[in-house]
Amino acid sequence: MKLLRKTPLAWRQLLKERTRLLIAVAGITFADMLIFIQMGFEGALFDAAVKPHRSLDADLVLINPQFQTLFSVKNFSRERLYQALGYDGVKSVNAVYIGTGQWRNPETRLERAILVWGIDPAKSAFNFPEIQQNLDSIKQLNQVLFDQAGRPEYGAVGEIFQKTGQFNTELNNKAISVKGIFSNGASFAADGNVIASDSTFLQIFPERKADRIEVGLITLKPDANLEQVRSQLVAGLPNDIKVLTIEEFAQIEKSYWASGTGIGFIFGLGVGVGFIVGIVIVYQILYSDVSEHLPEYATLKAMGYTDSYLLVVLLQEALLLAILGFIPAFFFSFGLYQLTYAATMLPIFMKVERAVNVLIMTIIMCSVSGAIAMRKLRSADPADIF
After folding, report:
1. How far is C-alpha 203 from the chain's CA centre?
2. Which of 153, 294, 306, 365 has its CA 20 to 30 A from that of 207?
């Protein structure tokens, strides 16, 4: 009896029908890849959407209370920024203009929407080293910094600039010259970014007013308490602006894409579909296995093995299938992430947290299938073998 209990029955059962095992592993791999891809795109959406927010060189930000996303941003009076400068603990303030312009590819002559940032070139607004090192180069009118990690449809800007040191084109039908490059990347809503001085920004968008800004940046003194200064600003400034930390600012953008659009629901639905597909596939495999070996299971019951023991065997099979299906899914998805990044420039990468979550989901998926298949196993009557 002890010898039988030490026999790797679950593994033997799976190996006996190798074709069925391969089909089961392929099915689980497909389901896991579907989950990986959905989670990957959702994660890339959020990471790309909030990367500009987290790259701002500030401790606190001021925004319009109606702000939802950078690509439909509301402005507010620049006066609020100067008022904030008068509070204890505030070291400096900086204004940021944001608008969507039309970038012309000089080779194809086609125009494409691009996000334009207007900043004071005398102050640091972003913590990208490439931007900070090239601020002097955009002090003159119609000089910009270009995001070389954007979509290739804008043209080979980074490549040409690195070879020749210049790149000339048009932005909103205004002649501009690229004087530096940086890397931020594309997102689902914006394919690229351009940084210009505030003066150049107002030239590119002549309908905009200098006293209406989109984001106000506040830098605190080294010894200042962030929450205390923030509380003072919230209490003292009019309610036509909102005072946030950088991370809270980023979370507004993330919430917009997660719940303010159908994108978050679609990706969540894809994960759910993959999970259900996996359950169905594993259940069919385990149910077929139990059905074909019902006499053998009845014999084990006649020998004294309980339903609990047989359930453990079935769950062991499910766990083995989960692991065998997860391993190829992980590597295939890793490769697909790389291909997607190369094709779209979206920041889609394999993360340890995501891999662990998918593994846990796979184990749960297979365990649920095993538990459902156990109903068939309970019908194995020892009397049937006599």
Report:
1. 34
2. 153
110 in Cβ contact with 153 (< 8 Å): yes
Give domain status of residue 364, yes or no: yes
Q: Per DSSP, what are the bridge partners of residue 169?
A: 176
Query: pLDDT, tens digit, for every residue of 335-381?
Result: 999 998 887 777 888 999 999 999 999 988 888 887 787 776 666 55
Cα–Cα distance between 44 and 39 in angstroms, integer?
A: 8
Match 């494409």 to its residue by tokens: 112
DSSP E strands in the chain: the ranges are 60-63, 76-77, 90-104, 111-119, 143-147, 167-171, 174-182, 193-197, 212-213, 215-220, 242-245
- C-alpha of 300 from chain center: 50
Quick one: tokens of 351?
A: 């993360």
Domain with 266, as residue range(s), is 2-49+262-385
Q: How many domains are there within the chain?
A: 2
3-state SS class at 192 = coil
pTM (global) more than 0.90: no
Residues 216 and 102 in one domain: yes
End of a domain among 240, 274, 306? 240
